């Protein structure tokens, strides 16, 4: 849709397809809005300008890529400072879609084993259960989502309710706002027929441990944003909002082929979880690709140093030196390959049974 | 029984056993007169033979002094070389060298038959014969003991034909003696021969057929009649002595599960003095049948030829048989007829026999037909045997007695009759014993020969002599042995002495067989004599190797007493006194006792078990009956404990404690569940809740068992069970309370396969040798884990997260669960008078397993009402909790409690019922209203609503829990309008007489104060209506109409 309008209306296309504009306005109604002034938009647009031509050609040729913008944003958040080419985002998009479809298939199978036709959130989480950190992040995400939702409901209630009831409702709200812990069916509590009421003494040790990675990520993001100008920071925080699913659930469903993969209609929770997971996938991919690229760059530098003699001196008007090049498709491919490396576990039962060749499904990242 | 069984090893070993004798034997050829002239070659052969003999001794050295040899193999070889060359030319002609060197199946020492010096038994001299050929003349002498007896006997025989019948007894004795001598001789000669197992198969099959035929005949005979009276049977004169027994048996006949025939046999055995054929009424029957039976048995035993004639010809085999043969006959039928006592005379019997052969010859007209050969042989046999049957015609005793007055020579007959009876008694003993010991002990082959001669009317014997004369004495003697033997265990049909042949004019047909068989007379004799034992030995062996493989389930071949005796004797024969001494004295005695019985002709290699010396063996049989093995033997020991249980290692211990926590938590859960259920249910049954009392997991050891050495304990089932147990524990540890057996099996199998792989990998690494050396144990372990997809981190994280942390979580959860349970039980305690005691009691309660005591009384269902009145006591509180309606009761309780303080004030006096008199006191505004009410109430005093009987009361206004009289009320009132009134009407007449209370109670004031439309409840509605009525005083209130 966006693209159509972009094609028809030349002037608006610029703004509309620019990386931030619509979301900026729509998302951040309060304080952020004041920051986003007319001046910032051209700036941001100029950033996007670099690849604008490319992008349009690319989109026209490859109509199937629908998440270029989001992926670019996600990559930016994940540490890619350059402007990834549409090819790169295209590859990432394909990978992500493959992962989503695989997840849906496996989750559907899991649900079928359970005797149900529709996927539950547990089925989905079950697929990534071994990645405890991810599960923990997902739980955090879900619980906050719950909080947000109840808060929103509460807001609506409060609007309509009598002011007299406010205090009581406020109490209830507070009660409910305490993050509900998402319990999973394979946790200890499920061993028993009775559930004790939630206690305060829940130890979050595990969670804390699982959050180490998250914290590290936050820290690096903090490092990055430290030196940013206000505009840049806004841009950054905007990028962090990027999602495959947020407010575009329908597009996502079509894109991932929900109809053909599963019979039942996955509910919004599923879509939300998938949104979360897709973000993680892009992030992991980007980080891995960046590592690869760094290694490659280092190698090139050391190679270059060998040719130092031929290196010409730099002069005043030489123009900018080579900037940091963006991640290229091959880096992504290599990253994907590395992430797909079969786990040691998978060969446990194959020893002595022949078959050095493993035919496995796509590994979930 | 296969010929492969006779491996060269075995053969050679036996050869060694027999060596001494063979050696003496081997010299014989040289000794014989005939061969003497051919000298140089013979001498060379002899020399060579000696060398071979020695070679055997050297190759298989024996520790026994008697068998020891001082030559080494090398020496031997060295010596052998030149002589070999010398002899090259002569070699071929000699069977001797062939036999020893080449291992041809039948090693037959070709020699002049007369058997020599066995009595000498020069075993000690055995090494001596190395010196060249013993002098021929010496041979003549050593031919000592046996031949003499023969020589003595043969003259007798020659006499007997010329002599009259009166010498029958003497002849019989002589015959017996001859037989024994012959066998003696045969046995001795047998040991000089070397036999193979080739013919055993035939022997076995023949024997089987024979047995089968026996069975068939018996079965047919039995099938003939239903069990009859024994007393009717012909049991002979002696039945008188047994009449009580017989009568008894007759009375209980149906309980005896034996056929008539068998019974009769038994009886005749018991009687001992008469044969089963004996009959009081028939004269001569016993003798005739006795002999006839022997003949038939004899013929049947002639298995080489008789097989085809044992049973009736089957129509399927020969469709046209019955067209050609009008009167079929076979040995089985003859036997049957015998048993049915169908023969009246010898002639009938003989005719039947001849009919068999005639039929065969007639049917198989082709002279080359193989059956003809057999038939002729059988015919010959028959001819030779017929003379043995006394020519008696059976007559009734009555007749005989009638004639009794007659001849004196009958006395002689009677005398001779006595003898046969005696001997037949002996006869019977032998078969009887052999039957009883079937399988356990070989029957004597000689028993039959012993039996035969006495009955014989020696008529045929003399014929033997006719041809004997030209033959040198010893040869003649031997052939006569053979013929004698033929009476006992019948000789093969083509070996009979030639005398018969001439008699029968059958030479032409038989000559060829004789020619070929003549060479092998000894072998033939041996074959026939040992047929039965061989068949038995073969079938025993056959059992073990049936279907071409070793049958593990068959009982093992065990050396029996007889075998042991044999063994001991052979030990003794070797002069090994030590070995003999080892054997326990009583056993040795027993062996000696049995010596006489043990007389099989079979060479040692048929009795491998009896020939193999004792192996050093650590197991001892405690006794023949005890099947116990000595447990305290050093090779057996108890399996060590703890092989099949989990070692109490760190991980296992923490897993166990986790599981224990789980169980405890489950127990608490169960309690919580019970309580919750009680709260919901109004009534609880004592058996509603199954008691939940999990047992602690304890791994049990398998029962004690013995193992035999230090190797691993290979016990698939036990291992699997133990493994399953471990898997089950892991399941439980992972939170499953129970599981499907299939899932459980599957996981076990997968795990087993995985561990197999790990084991294999470990082995592989252990066996791998690198240039730098072998792998260190820890390297092996790490490699193995890596190869099998296990990472150390994964294992670590399993232990950390899934065991240790799980344990912590479980404990926390348990605490919370317990707290939850406490919470559920606590509320009633709050207002208990002394909380400490309550607390204590509660604790006691919580800790105790209350489900044990679930019972109506315990929960105090009945008391509950009382308890409510008297206030909470600890126990009642406890009970009320359990009774379930905790919340409710608690609420009422608290409301009562809240009400109690108000009772401090005096209750206002009850309102008086409003009547016309009291109306004046009311305020003017309501007077009209009350008047109308009174009127409607037919001037009766108006009663307060609360005092009305329940049914007449207006429905009470119900306040929502909030206490607010709120908007929901609005809707019905505003929406209903007039309808609502109509609906209300049917309600019990509203008590109009709510008089304005003097104290101005709020209840009354409120309705009046509030605008009727805004606050409506049922209680107030009437007032509103009344107002309407006020406006239209003439109209009757609907209530009043209803009331009227």
Automatic annotation (TrEMBL), chain A:
Subcellular location: Nucleus
Gene3D superfamilies: Histone, subunit A (1.10.20.10)
Keywords annotated in UniProt: Activator, Coiled coil, Nucleus, Transcription, Transcription regulation
Coiled coil feature spans: 285-312
Any GO molecular function: protein heterodimerization activity
Top-level taxon of the source organism: Eukaryota
GO cellular component terms listed in the entry, alphabetical order: nucleus; SAGA complex
Swiss-Prot/TrEMBL GO biological process terms: regulation of transcription by RNA polymerase II; transcription by RNA polymerase II
InterPro entries reported for this sequence: Histone-fold, TFIID_TAF13
Family: Belongs to the SPT3 family.
Protein name per UniProt: Transcription initiation protein spt3
Organism: Orbilia ellipsospora
Gene name, Swiss-Prot/TrEMBL: SPT3
UniProtKB/TrEMBL annotation, chain B:
Coiled-coil boundaries: none
Superkingdom of source: Eukaryota
UniProt biased composition (Basic and acidic residues): 400-411
Residue stretches of biased makeup (Polar residues): 1-11
GO biological process, alphabetically ordered: chromatin organization; regulation of transcription by RNA polymerase II
Cellular component, GO annotation: nucleus; SAGA complex; SLIK (SAGA-like) complex
Compositional bias annotation for Acidic residues: 114-126
Chief location bin: nucleus
InterPro entries: Bromodomain (IPR001487), Bromodomain-like_sf (IPR036427), Bromodomain_CS (IPR018359), BTP (IPR006565), Histone-fold (IPR009072), Spt7 (IPR037782)
Gene3D superfamilies linked to this entry: Bromodomain-like, Histone, subunit A
Residue spans of biased composition, Pro residues class: 130-148, 987-999
Protein name listed in UniProt: SAGA complex subunit Spt7
């Amino acid at each position: 849709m966006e693209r159509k309008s972009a094609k028809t209306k030349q002037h608006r296309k610029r703004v509309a397809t620019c990386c931030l504009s619509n979301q900026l306005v729509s998302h951040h109604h309060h304080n952020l809005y004041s920051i986003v002034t007319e001046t910032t938009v051209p700036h941001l647009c100029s950033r996007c300008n670099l690849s604008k031509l490319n992008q349009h050609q690319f989109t026209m040729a490859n109509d199937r890529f629908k998440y270029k913008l989001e992926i670019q944003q996600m990559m930016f958040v994940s540490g890619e400072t350059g402007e990834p080419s549409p090819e790169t985002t295209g590859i990432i998009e394909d990978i992500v879609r493959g992962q989503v479809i695989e997840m849906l298939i496996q989750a559907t199978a899991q649900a079928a084993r359970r005797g149900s036709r529709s996927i539950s959130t547990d089925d989905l989480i079950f697929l990534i259960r071994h990645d405890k950190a991810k599960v923990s992040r997902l739980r955090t995400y879900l619980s906050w989502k719950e909080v947000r939702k109840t808060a929103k409901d509460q807001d609506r209630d409060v609007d309509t309710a009598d002011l007299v009831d406010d205090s009581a409702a406020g109490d209830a709200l507070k009660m409910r706002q305490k993050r509900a812990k998402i319990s999973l069916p394979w946790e200890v509590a499920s061993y028993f027929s009775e559930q004790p009421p939630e206690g305060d003494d829940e130890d979050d040790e595990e969670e804390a441990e699982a959050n180490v990675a998250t914290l590290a990520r936050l820290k690096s993001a903090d490092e990055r944003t430290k030196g940013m100008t206000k505009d840049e920071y806004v841009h950054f925080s905007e990028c962090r909002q990027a999602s495959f699913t947020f407010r575009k659930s329908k597009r996502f469903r079509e894109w991932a082929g929900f109809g053909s993969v599963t019979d039942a209609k996955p509910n919004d929770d599923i879509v939300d979880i998938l949104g979360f997971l897709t973000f993680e996938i892009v992030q992991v991919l980007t980080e891995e690709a960046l590592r690869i690229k760094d290694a490659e760059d280092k190698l090139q530098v050391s190679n270059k140093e060998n040719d130092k003699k031929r290196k010409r001196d730099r002069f005043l008007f030489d123009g900018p030196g080579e900037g940091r090049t963006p991640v290229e498709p091959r880096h992504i491919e290599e990253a994907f390959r590395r992430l797909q490396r079969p786990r040691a576990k998978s060969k446990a039962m194959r020893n002595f049974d022949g078959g050095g060749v493993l035919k496995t499904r796509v590994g979930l990242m | 029984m296969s010929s492969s069984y006779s491996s060269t090893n075995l053969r050679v070993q036996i050869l060694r056993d027999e060596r001494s004798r063979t050696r003496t034997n081997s010299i014989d050829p040289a000794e014989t007169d005939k061969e003497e002239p051919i000298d140089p070659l013979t001498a060379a052969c002899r020399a060579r033979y000696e060398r071979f003999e020695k070679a055997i001794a050297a190759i298989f050295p024996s520790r026994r002094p008697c068998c020891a040899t001082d030559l080494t193999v090398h020496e031997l070889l060295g010596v052998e070389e030149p002589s070999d060359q010398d002899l090259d030319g002569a070699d071929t002609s000699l069977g001797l060298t062939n036999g020893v060197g080449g291992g041809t199946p039948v090693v037959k020492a070709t020699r002049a038959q007369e058997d020599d010096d066995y009595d000498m038994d020069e075993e000690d001299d055995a090494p001596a014969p190395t010196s060249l050929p013993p002098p021929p003349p010496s041979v003549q002498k050593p031919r000592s003991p046996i031949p003499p007896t023969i020589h003595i006997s043969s003259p007798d025989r020659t006499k007997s034909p010329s002599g009259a019948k009166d010498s029958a007894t003497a002849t019989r004795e002589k015959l017996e003696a001859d037989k024994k001598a012959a066998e003696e001789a045969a046995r001795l000669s047998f040991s000089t021969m070397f036999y193979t197992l080739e013919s055993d198969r035939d022997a076995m099959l023949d024997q089987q057929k024979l047995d089968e035929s026996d069975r068939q005949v018996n079965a047919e005979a039995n099938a003939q009649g239903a069990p009859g009276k024994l007393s009717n049977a012909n049991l002979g004169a002696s039945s008188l002595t047994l009449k009580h027994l017989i009568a008894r048996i007759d009375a209980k006949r149906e309980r005896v599960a034996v056929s008539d025939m068998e019974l009769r046999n038994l009886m005749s055995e018991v009687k001992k003095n008469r044969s089963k054929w004996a009959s009081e009424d028939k004269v001569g029957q016993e003798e005739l049948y006795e002999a006839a039976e022997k003949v038939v048995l004899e013929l049947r035993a002639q298995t080489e030829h008789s097989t085809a004639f044992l049973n009736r010809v089957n129509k399927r085999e020969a469709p046209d048989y019955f067209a050609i043969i009008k009167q079929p006959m076979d040995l089985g039928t003859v036997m049957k007829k015998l048993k049915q006592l169908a023969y009246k005379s010898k002639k009938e019997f003989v005719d039947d026999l001849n009919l068999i052969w005639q039929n065969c010859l007639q049917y198989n007209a082709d002279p080359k037909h193989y059956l003809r050969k057999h038939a002729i042989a059988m015919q010959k046999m028959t001819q030779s045997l017929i003379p043995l049957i006394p020519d008696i015609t059976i007559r009734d005793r009555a007749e005989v007695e009638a004639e009794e007055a007659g001849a004196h020579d009958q006395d002689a007959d009677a005398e001779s009759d006595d003898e046969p009876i005696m001997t037949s008694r002996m006869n019977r003993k032998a078969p009887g014993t052999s039957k009883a010991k079937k399988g356990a002990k070989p029957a004597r082959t000689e028993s039959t020969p012993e039996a035969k001669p006495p009955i014989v009317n020696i008529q045929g014997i003399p014929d033997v002599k006719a041809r004997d004369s030209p033959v040198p004495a010893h040869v003649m003697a031997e052939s006569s042995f053979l013929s004698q033997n033929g009476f006992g265990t019948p000789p093969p049909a083509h070996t009979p002495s030639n005398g018969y042949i001439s008699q029968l004019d059958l030479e032409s047909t038989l000559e060829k067989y004789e020619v070929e068989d003549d060479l092998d007379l000894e072998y033939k004799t041996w074959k026939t004599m040992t047929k039965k034992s061989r068949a038995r030995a073969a079938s025993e062996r056959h059992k073990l190797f049936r279907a071409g493989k070793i049958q593990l389930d068959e009982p093992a071949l065990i050396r029996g007493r007889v075998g042991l005796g044999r063994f001991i004797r052979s030990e003794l024969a070797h002069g090994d006194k030590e070995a003999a001494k080892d054997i326990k004295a009583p056993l040795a005695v027993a062996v000696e006792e049995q010596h006489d019985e043990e007389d099989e002709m079979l060479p040692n290699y048929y009795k491998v078990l009896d020939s193999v010396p004792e192996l050093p063996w650590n197991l001892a049989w405690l006794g023949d009956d005890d099947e116990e093995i000595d447990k305290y033997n050093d090779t057996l020991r108890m399996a060590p404990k703890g092989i099949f249980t989990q070692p109490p290692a760190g991980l296992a211990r923490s897993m166990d404690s986790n599981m224990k926590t789980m169980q405890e938590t489950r127990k608490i859960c169960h309690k919580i569940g019970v309580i919750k259920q009680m709260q919901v249910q109004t009534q609880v049954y004592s058996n509603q809740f199954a008691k939940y009392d999990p047992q602690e997991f304890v791994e049990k050891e398998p029962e004690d068992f013995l193992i035999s050495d230090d190797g691993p304990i290979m016990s698939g089932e036990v291992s699997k069970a133990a493994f399953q147990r471990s898997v089950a524990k892991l399941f439980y540890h992972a939170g499953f309370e129970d599981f499907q057996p299939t899932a459980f099996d599957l996981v076990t199998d997968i795990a087993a396969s995985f561990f197999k792989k790990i084991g294999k990998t470990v082995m592989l690494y252990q066996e791998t040798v690198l240039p730098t050396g072998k792998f260190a144990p820890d390297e092996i372990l790490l490699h193995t884990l890596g190869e099998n997809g296990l990472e150390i981190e994964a294992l670590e994280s399993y232990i950390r997260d899934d065991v240790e942390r799980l344990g912590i979580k479980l404990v926390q959860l348990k605490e919370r669960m317990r707290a939850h349970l406490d919470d559920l039980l606590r509320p009633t305690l709050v207002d208990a008078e002394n909380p400490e005691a309550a607390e204590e009691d509660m604790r006691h309660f919580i800790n105790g397993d209350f489900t044990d005591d679930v019972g109506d009384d315990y929960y105090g269902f009945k008391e509950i009402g009382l308890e409510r009145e008297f206030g909470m006591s600890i126990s009642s509180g406890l009970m009320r909790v359990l009774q379930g309606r905790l919340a409710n009761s608690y609420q009422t309780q608290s409301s009562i409690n809240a009400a109690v303080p108000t009772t401090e004030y005096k209750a206002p006096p009850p309102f008086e019922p409003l009547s016309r008199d009291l109306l004046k006191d009311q305020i003017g505004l309501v007077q009209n209203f009350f008047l109308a009410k009174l009127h409607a109430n037919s001037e009766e005093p108006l009663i307060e609503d609360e005092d009305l009987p329940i049914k007449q009361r207006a429905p009470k206004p119900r306040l929502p829990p909030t206490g607010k009289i709120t908007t929901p009320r609005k809707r019905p009132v505003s929406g209903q309008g007039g309808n609502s009134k109509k609906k209300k009407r049917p309600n019990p007449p509203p008590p109009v007489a709510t008089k304005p209370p003097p104290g101005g109670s709020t209840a009354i004031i409120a309705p009046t104060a509030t605008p009727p439309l805004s606050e409506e409840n049922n209680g107030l509605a009437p007032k509103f209506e009344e107002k309407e009525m006020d406006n239209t005083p003439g109209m009757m209130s609907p209530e009043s109409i209803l009331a009227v």
